[in-house]
DNA sequence: CGTAATTTTGATTGTAGTCAATCCCCGTGG
DNA sequence: CCACGGGGATTGACTACAATCAAAATTACG
């Protein structure tokens, strides 16, 4: 299944998520303690990292790639409840069971910390505890934003919302070219988009086609999206273009 | 508007939310420090505690009563994103602006902490920081559970889910009589239920009637609900009755 | 190139939304 | 004491949006 992997960098100080992850505030002494309890694991696109209910003896940071958290009902209905990007944190200190199924949607590298020693470090290392609180509060804000999308937006607005979230994030990370025109790659299949938005994949496909027909987006292949006018997309999402005190 | 109120108890040690709120883990020295930065405020049912975007110079615990967190789009569509019960925490350390509108749905008493000194205490008092992290993680779990409800459940399942959440909570707090039969009072109007569940109030009303007609619930007046068979209600909610590792 | 997986498009159905009327419970005032 | 009024809740008729069922088309891949 998964492999224990050596990533392309040597130590925490070279880590690409060094200043965004749960370890962001740690000094070099603290990083050394973390080095002792950490190991890397890699997953290829499509692999399940863990199933809801599995025993879990680690928590982890996403180093590279994209993963999803999903919840599934007995009859198969599935809802994505989290989208994990590089630097995001997986797992809950104090809980030995996975609450959600975690799936790699692209090739994925995770930096795993053995759970027990990590929990102890939370008690002894305020830098970690504080950063974890900050990240959890951000997650909670994102979940609440998402609740508005799920509960009150139309299918078209839902798609536009998802696209604008991804577009903004990529722009923020400097992954997008400059200029007014934004371009990015969707890290999700149509089905994953449907699970994110509480729609069927047919509806996702129809609304993507409609947004394309109306010139809100331009598609190159299935996955590469160009947004000629970001304000237009935000309007389609039902967000005021000036909103977004939180990026 | 709101009044500075004296609650029915004298000090933190007599406080009804003493062992569940953000101060749950504090020792008496720490409580004394909190006493210095806290004050009580009361609101009557229906009052708005604060509007999204308002300046906020405090964070708070709900002492008694029920409040809601809501998000509203420009055209008026409203989604509840949090239901605040006694011991729940309001506000985000480090943020001076309210992200959501807070409304009292019953008479409400809040224990407010001046924001700046409270933020400093988070840094110096691990008992508070740790409890706040724990509570935030619980909130995040609740939000994710809720996302499944919003995204994937039918109107009938949504209503049954909400009722079972309230029923379980009341049973847990010992508010309900013993026996197999559960009875509780809805702390929400039909409109608030609709905002919680991403429905219209007409649909809420119809599904309440349907559940009553089918014998899943018994209504005494509009607000008092009796559940003759909790497992039946859970099944209607689409949850397996054995689920719920987290109450 | 051929097969499977993913996506798009089409036709039809069904659930919840909308618009509208009525009801019910209370409190108020004539 | 009863009429009145208002907010909340229920019920009804109709509509619309997204789901479902089904087929075709495009892409990825061995």
From TrEMBL, chains A, B:
Pfam families cross-referenced by the UniProt entry: cNMP_binding, HTH_Crp_2
InterPro entries reported for this sequence: cNMP-bd_dom, cNMP-bd_dom_sf, Env_Response_Regulators, HTH_CRP, RmlC-like_jellyroll, Tscrpt_reg_HTH_Crp-type_CS, WH-like_DNA-bd_sf, WH_DNA-bd_sf
Keywords annotated in UniProt: DNA-binding, Transcription, Transcription regulation
Top-rank lineage group of the source organism: Bacteria
CDD domains for the chain: CAP_ED, HTH_CRP
Domain Cyclic nucleotide-binding: 22-139
Domain HTH crp-type positions: 153-231
Protein name according to UniProt: Crp/Fnr family transcriptional regulator
Organism of this sequence: Roseobacter sinensis
């Amino acid at each position: 299944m998964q492999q224990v992997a050596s990533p392309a960098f040597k130590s925490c100080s070279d880590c690409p998520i060094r200043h965004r992850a749960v370890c962001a505030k740690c000094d070099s002494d603290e990083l050394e303690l973390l080095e002792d309890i950490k190991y890397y694991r890699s997953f290829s696109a499509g692999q399940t990292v863990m199933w809801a209910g599995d025993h879990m003896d680690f928590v982890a940071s996403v180093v590279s790639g994209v993963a999803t958290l999903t919840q599934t009902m007995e009859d198969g209905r599935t809802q994505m409840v989290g989208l994990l990007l590089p630097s995001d944190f997986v797992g809950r200190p104090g809980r030995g069971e996975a609450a959600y199924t975690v799936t790699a949607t692209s090739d994925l590298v995770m930096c795993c910390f053995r759970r027990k020693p990590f929990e102890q470090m939370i008690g002894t290392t305020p830098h970690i505890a504080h950063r974890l609180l900050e990240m959890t509060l951000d997650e909670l804000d994102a979940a609440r934003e998402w609740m508005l999308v799920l509960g009150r937006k139309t299918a078209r607005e839902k798609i536009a919302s998802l696209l604008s979230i991804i577009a903004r994030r990529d722009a923020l990370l400097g992954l997008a070219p400059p200029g007014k025109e934004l371009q990015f790659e969707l890290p999700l299949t149509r089905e994953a988009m449907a699970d994110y938005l509480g729609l069927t994949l047919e509806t996702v496909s129809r609304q993507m086609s409609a947004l394309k027909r109306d010139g809100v987006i331009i598609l190159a292949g299935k996955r590469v999206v160009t947004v000629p006018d970001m304000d237009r997309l935000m309007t389609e999402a039902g967000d005021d273009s000036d909103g977004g005190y939180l990026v």
